[in-house]
Amino acid sequence: MYEPKPEHKFSFGLWTVGNVGRDPFGEPTRAALTPVQIVHLLAEVGAWGVNFHDNDLVPIDATPAQRDQIVRDFKAALAATGIVVPMATTNLFSDPVFKDGAFTSNDPAVRAYALQKTLNAIDLGVELGATTYVFWGGREGTESDSTKNPLEALKRYREAINFLCAYVKDQGYNLRFALEPKPNEPRGHIFLPTVGDALAFIATLDYPEMVGVNPEVAHEHMAGLNFTHGVAMAHAAGKLFHIDLNDQLFGRYDQDFRFGSMMPKQAFHLVKFLEDVGYTGSRHFDAHAFRSSNYEDVKAFARGCMRTYLILKEKAAQFNADPEVQQLLAAIHADDGTFSYLGGGYSREALAALRATGFDRAALAQRDLPYERLDQITLEILLGVR
Predict the structure, then answer these.
(1) Tell me, what DSSP letter sits at residue 224?
(2) What letter does residue 38 receive in the DSSP assignment?
(3) What's the rounded Cα separation, in Å, for the pair 86 and 142?
(4) By CB count within 10 A, which of 11, 21, 143, 190 is most buried?
(5) Which pLDDT score, from 0 to 100, does residue 15 have?
(6) What single DSSP character describes residue 26?
(7) Do β-strands 132-136 and 244-245 pair in parallel, antiparallel, or remain unpaired?
């Protein structure tokens, strides 16, 4: 009943199920898998897609011959399993050269290298079928504001994205970009920390129509924000190009837990929103299994991400079909059409009608809003007792 199917568009990154369990305080607990092995693992658990950073697939120091062989083997694995590549990205954060950022580095040679590396990675992504390209600026930030002028840094960021957009247009690629906001970690302060910051930045670009956002649950929760609200803002702006699903508690470091495992009520509202608005993009799980897991448990983790999404999708349909829910919502949103003229925007006629209206503030303040009942029903649906 909760088996993933291709139409669900569930995807994982090579870096997710391929995570070896290393953390800042401990060495790996799992042996590394090759990209080909990861593709077969994802096919086994029923995933639809696999995403990658350039160096997840091709090591940064690979020779051209090694690069070509790796890509051939990866393509063969994709063909054998039916797994697709919907999204690609560039690793501009692991290598020491990016210790002070990539596009916003104070060193012009580093900025140029980052641009060159991204151009090559875009070519690789397109070669493998990607139609979305994500930018996570993990090192684009500061620990001390004495070290960078934020206006200059954002100018450099803008110039890089403009250059890359122009390149994609010049090559005729079917590719659009998605910025991935994050407030902190690994840097103390990362530029474009939230969905709102990213949307404002996109409006300043030369080709804003090519650039959207890739919001991530954990990143908005790190800032203590309501993720569903950020996703709604992106959707309303026509900028929800991709999404990263995982889970974590508010205010913690980037935990990347299995989707829905920490805050299921928040996950429910997110899934309900995506399904209600008919989101058609990838549902990408940017999450990691526990460090204590072996690869059988990693498979359980991956299956769990997809299964939880499908369970919550079913719960959302149950919520929408519940007679009492619909009765409550109808009462809450009751509208006799008296003020429908305001939906047409400003006009002198609308202004005159509004000014001529008398309002009974006391009566309006006494209107019944049974939100406690509605919220309790939501909880009972999630707990399976309704």
Answers:
(1) T
(2) H
(3) 31
(4) 11
(5) 98
(6) B
(7) unpaired
382 membership: H or E segment, kind and range: helix 371-383
CA dist 348 and 8 (Å) reads 48
Q: Which candidate, 277, 292, 267, 287, places its Cα nearest to that of 237? A: 277
Which amino acid is residue 85, in one-letter code? V
Q: Retrieve residue 42's tokens.
A: 């994802």
Q: How many CA atoms lie within 13 A of 244 on its CB side?
A: 32
Which secondary structure element, helix H or strand E, spans residue 117, and what is its range?
Answer: helix 108-127
- Please state, in angstroms and rounded to a whole number, the distance separating the CA atoms of residues 338 and 355: 14
pTM for this one? 0.97
282-338: pLDDT as tens digits: 999 999 999 999 999 999 999 999 999 999 999 999 999 999 999 999 999 999 999
Q: Is 285 exposed, middle or buried (0-12, 13-18, 19+ CB in 10 A)?
A: buried
Sign of CA dihedral 169, 172, 176, 179: negative
185 Cβ contact partners less than 8 Å away, ≥ 6 residues apart = 222, 253, 254
C-alpha 244/C-alpha 239 separation (Å) is 14
Rounded (to 5) percent helix, strand, coil in the chain: 50, 10, 40
- For tokens 């898998």, name the residue: 33
What is the Cα 216 distance to its own chain's centre? 4
Render pLDDT for 64-113 as a digit per residue (tens, 0 to 9). 999 999 999 999 999 999 999 999 999 999 999 999 999 999 999 999 99
How do beta strands 189-190 and 10-13 pair? unpaired
Distance CA 247, CA 336 (A): 41
Q: What element of type H or E holds 43?
A: helix 35-45
Q: What are phi and psi of 184, to 5 degrees?
A: -165, 175
Q: Do 277 and 235 form a contact (C-beta atoms < 8 A)? A: yes
* Span between the terminal Cα atoms of the chain, in Å: 19
Where does residue 279 rank: exposed (0-12), middle (13-18), buried (19+ CB within 10 A)? middle
Catalytic positions: 53, 56
Provide the angle, in degrees to the nearest 10, between the axes of the packed helices 295-321 and 371-383.
140
- Report the distance separating Cα 156 and Cα 153, nearest Å: 5
CB 307 within 8 A of CB 2: yes
